[in-house]
């Protein structure tokens, strides 16, 4: 039973004082008691009561657990997950987690409920259909400091109770207190963003934000979702003895079945017409978050002398890297196809403290400025040319809101997740994330229209002396050929 002194409990009769005594007569059944009818339904039929959240978080989270090492439970959980997605598509349903995450000590998936009607429909359905699985039903409130209470005293369990790891909530409070003491921006940290409580705060404070092109057709995608729609192949032939279902946790097993020759080949084919809908990804919402999709990866490499390199990988290929010295950003690398550019932190366009990266339309190459970018010759970025990327301020994406975060140990060449629920083995995959180049495929201006899919983060020179992965390394102290943002251009045009 909850410690009665752990929390404050306002009187349930607040607002109902001084009324006539209730009757004591029984109904005809001889058991239930008569209540005076006043013809007014409680507001709780229409909306959740205060202080339950009524915003995008939803009033209730439902976590449905399974033991990830029990194949029968895994199979049932996946079947239940599919059924819920098909029968209740209006609910917000997160990805299927294959291991512990945040305060949740075993694997689970999460469903959000936004209205009393959704609650009333889904919870009775789940009681009947949850099978051998346990479920945690907890509220979300407007009181952020009440997260621990929401997961304990206010929580309800269906089935056996799973002991939660409440340490995360202590870390959240410590991180918020530390940020306030240091005069730094306080980040909202949810239980799904446990890494934010332990990652150096400056890594998030100065993390890049990305402008996706206004006509971008290929939005950020969930890293694991790609595996659902691809088949591991070597020389355009499916690999024998490959895992029946490729996941982020077993992807590295393909190293023994083809190693660098393995391509994660789309089931529909690279030149499918029409293109499959999964290629379109998920457009960031008004907060810049890719809901239901972990679409970026942050990898930290500590040099041990006060220098730390933070790599911000988008989807699985292009990236920015910021070099920090004693927590202060010094320079930033923008990857662009087979090359890229480096700038001092002071030279970059910013949103507050956060550098801006412009993503090429359809290519996702990263640039420091908007406009046209010729990349016919690697390493050169001219405003016009033969093969041009287009960038503008279309949709603003904050990759840190949906990211896995890892440390990289250069001496051991190993990755360590900041949260035990983050998959690690996929980072050791030696193959290619995409189709092999089509033999004799179509060309544009003498260049192949389709090139082979890229390899993963560990091949992006995580260990480097300079901020650039190549030599010579020129760190520009200004933005080249156009030292103005679109907003600045507009202001100049209006004033002229």
UniProtKB/TrEMBL annotation:
Coiled-coil features, chain-numbered ranges: none
TM ranges: none
Pfam families for the chain: DOPA_dioxygen (PF08883)
Highest taxon of source: Eukaryota
Protein name as catalogued: Vacuolar protein sorting-associated protein 62
UniProt organism field: Aspergillus pseudotamarii
């Amino acid at each position: 039973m909850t410690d009665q002194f752990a929390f404050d409990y306002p009187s349930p009769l607040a607002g109902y004082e001084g009324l006539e005594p209730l009757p004591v007569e029984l109904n005809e059944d001889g058991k239930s008691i008569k209540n005076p009818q006043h013809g007014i339904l409680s507001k709780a039929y229409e909306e959740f009561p205060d202080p339950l959240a009524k915003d995008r978080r939803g009033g209730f989270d439902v976590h449905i657990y399974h033991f990830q090492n029990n194949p029968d439970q895994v199979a049932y959980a996946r079947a239940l997950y599919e059924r819920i997605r098909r029968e209740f598509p209006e609910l917000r349903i997160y990805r299927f987690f294959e291991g512990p995450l945040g305060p949740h000590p075993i694997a689970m998936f999460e469903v959000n409920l936004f209205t009393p009607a959704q609650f009333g429909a889904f919870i009775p359905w789940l009681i009947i259909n949850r099978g051998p699985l346990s479920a945690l039903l907890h509220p979300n409130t407007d009181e952020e400091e009440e997260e621990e209470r929401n997961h304990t005293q206010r929580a309800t369990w269906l089935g056996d109770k799973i002991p939660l790891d409440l340490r995360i909530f202590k870390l959240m409070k410590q991180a918020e207190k530390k940020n306030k003491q240091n005069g730094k921006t306080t980040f909202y940290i949810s239980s799904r963003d446990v890494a934010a409580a332990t990652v150096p705060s400056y890594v998030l404070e100065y993390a890049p934000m990305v402008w996706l092109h206004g006509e971008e057709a290929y939005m950020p995608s969930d890293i694991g979702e790609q595996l659902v729609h691809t088949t591991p192949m070597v020389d355009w032939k499916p690999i024998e003895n490959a895992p029946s279902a490729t996941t982020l946790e077993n992807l590295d097993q393909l190293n023994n079945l083809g190693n660098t020759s393995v391509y994660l080949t789309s089931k529909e084919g690279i030149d499918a017409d029409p293109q499959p809908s999964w290629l379109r990804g998920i457009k960031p919402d008004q907060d810049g978050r890719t809901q239901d999709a972990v679409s970026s990866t942050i990898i930290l490499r500590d040099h041990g002398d006060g220098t730390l390199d933070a790599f911000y990988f988008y989807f699985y290929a292009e990236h920015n890297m910021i070099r920090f010295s004693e927590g202060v950003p010094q320079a930033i690398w923008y990857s662009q196809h087979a090359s890229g550019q480096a700038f001092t932190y002071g030279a970059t366009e910013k949103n507050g403290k956060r550098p801006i990266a412009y993503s090429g339309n359809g290519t996702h190459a990263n640039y420091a400025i908007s406009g046209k970018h010729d990349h016919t010759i690697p390493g050169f970025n001219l405003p016009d040319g033969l093969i041009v990327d287009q960038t503008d301020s279309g949709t603003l994406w904050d990759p840190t809101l949906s990211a896995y975060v890892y440390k990289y140990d250069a001496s051991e060449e190993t990755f360590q997740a900041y949260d035990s629920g983050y998959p690690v083995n996929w980072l050791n995959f030696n193959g290619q994330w995409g189709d092999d180049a089509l033999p004799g495929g179509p060309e544009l201006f003498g260049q192949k229209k389709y090139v082979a899919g890229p390899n993963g983060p560990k091949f992006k020179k995580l260990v480097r002396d300079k901020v650039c992965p190549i030599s010579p390394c020129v760190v520009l102290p200004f933005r080249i050929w156009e030292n103005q943002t679109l907003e600045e251009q507009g202001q100049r045009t209006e004033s002229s």
